[in-house]
Structure formats: structure tokens, C-alpha cells
Amino acid sequence: MRYSEGADLDPSGVQDRRGGGGLGGGRGLAVGGGGLGVVGVVVLVLFQLLGGGGDGGTGAALGQLSGLGQGQTADNTQLEQQCRTGADANESVDCAVVADIESIQDYWSGVLGADYQPTDTVFFNGSVQTSCGGATSGSGPFYCPADQLVYIDLSFFDTLQQQFGAEGGLFVNAYVIAHEYGHHVQNVLGINQQVTPGETGPTSGTVRLELQADCFAGTWANHAETVPDESGQPLIAEITQDDIDRALDAAARIGDDFIQQNLGGGTIDQDAFTHGSSEQRQRWFTTGYETGDPAQCDTFATDDLG
Fold first, then answer.
1. d(CA 302, CA 244)
2. What are the Cα distances from residue 2, in Å, to 6, 25, 78, 94?
């Protein structure tokens, strides 16, 4: 994946709450990170973020919290200084994510027009307070409908490779971000209201929501090289087949069955599925990528999820 060298980056879509803004690598219904939580607590964390209640001993207790926590500040100073052009995105993961966010939101603004409501991504370290409650890095990236923000500790990209064995790469990172913005689109359109909080199982609304977010990520990827920014030029210069293969590899490693069998207790329990199997996640990302059409992503209108 390459970014257009001369493209202008706009870091205003990020709230950098990592402390000093330095580059470093009412309770709502939060959507639990696309199945990307750290394996030891992934199921418990996902139940919590989907409204299961209690802290389950995971350290990600949810409470009546909102906005910036005590002592938390957002400081984009260094992002604004360091992330100015596509050339910076080609050199820095932080800047690449800035470019991804801008491209993804430009895409959805073009698709949905005035119905799309741009929103920010929050960079944090360790833990964060949200309108859906408190969360830790172990929760993985997630979207909180209550404040309409995407949250990510960027160290997760290392975790995805080191603990899950994913090949990784800039496009895999972009896939993760695009998945979370898929949840924002669902919230804007009211799709998430079809889902009963805490519902699990291979055909549950929870799984359908996650597979649709994968599909939405694929539709963005289809158009990414042509989505214009404010200057009329695309931010992303090239996405290769190797990039797509890496995204599919990542999708396989965050499927419920892979996590349960290889990183959990070793037994696959479909009744506990919250995000879909590896095959399903690959299928729906591919559907979005090959068609480029969000209308093909209606996982709620089919009995065949793969």
C-alpha cells in the first residue's frame, strides 16, 4: 500500500489522547472492536462492550462515564507537525492511519452525502474513558455509538502480528480502521438498532453487524485509489493484491473459530460467536471488495452468511 506522496493530510479527524500528543507508535452500546480484543479476555470484553454488564474481572469495567476522563487531554500538536503529506504516511504508521481515516470518511461522505456524519478516531495508550464506559487496550479497537467515536491503541497493530500471527502491514491497519468506521455507518443509518445487546451465535444480529462492517471495509478498499480528498486527488496511490491477501489473512485470524481454537480454550463453540468465523469474515470483506457496492453488504437480509 502506498500513499500519494504530494497529498495533503488532515489530522483533524484524530483526537490524540496518548499524553502530550506524542507520536508513539450515560452508558452506551459499544461495538466490541471487530473481534480484535486480546485473546485472554476477548469474549468477556466483547460481552461487556455489547452491554453484558459487570467487569467480569477483565479490567475494562463499564460505568457512567463520558467524554475525556479526569486528567485526559487531546493534543494533536505533533500529529499536525509530523503528518503533513502522503510522503509522511509512507514513513509513519501514525500518519498512515491519519490518511486512512481521511480517505474512509471521504468515501462514505461521497456514498451517503449529507446523511453521513464525520467523526473522529481517538488514539489512546493503555486505557480510555468513553461515553460507553471505560476500556483498556485489551479491548482492541472499538466504536462507541454513544459518543460516535472510534477508539484505538495503535500498539494493537503489533499485537495483531505478535499474538495472532497476522502478516500485518499498512493495509491491514487500514482494514481495521475501515471496519470500525463501518460501525459508525451502521449507527448513522440506524442499522445497529436491529441487534439485541449481548446476543451471540453464528446467525445472531451481533455476528451480522460485524460481518457487514467487514463488507463495508471492503467496499472502501475497492474505491480507495480513486476517492478524492478536498483537493480532488486521492490520498491512496496503490493497493496491491498482496495487501488484499494480508487483509484476508488478518480476517482469518480474528474469526471466532480461529480465536477459540488457537488462542483460547481449544474448543469451538458456535453459540458463543460474536463476530463470525474466519471463513465468514473473509467472505464478507471479499464481497465488499469485489463489488464495491455497500448494497451488497446487507447481512441482515440473507440466510446464507457463509
1. 25
2. 12, 19, 22, 14
Residues for the chain: how many in total? Answer: 306
H, E, C per residue of 19-37 = CCCCCCCCCCCCECHHHCC
Q: What is the pLDDT of residues 188-237, one digit of tens each?
A: 999 999 999 889 999 999 999 999 999 999 999 999 999 999 889 999 99
Place of cell 480513486: 226
Q: Residue 293 has which C-alpha cell?
A: 457496492
How remote is the C-alpha of 115 from its chain's centroid? 21
What pLDDT was estimated at residue 91? Answer: 97
Q: Mean pLDDT score of the chain, rounded to an integer?
A: 85
pLDDT along the chain (306 residues), means of 10: 96 89 43 44 33 27 35 82 97 98 98 97 94 90 95 95 95 98 97 92 96 98 96 95 98 95 91 96 98 98 94
How far is Cα 298 from Cα 294, in angstroms, rounded to an integer?
8
Q: Which phi and psi angles does 63 have, rounded to 5°?
A: -145, -170
Q: pTM score, two decimals?
A: 0.87
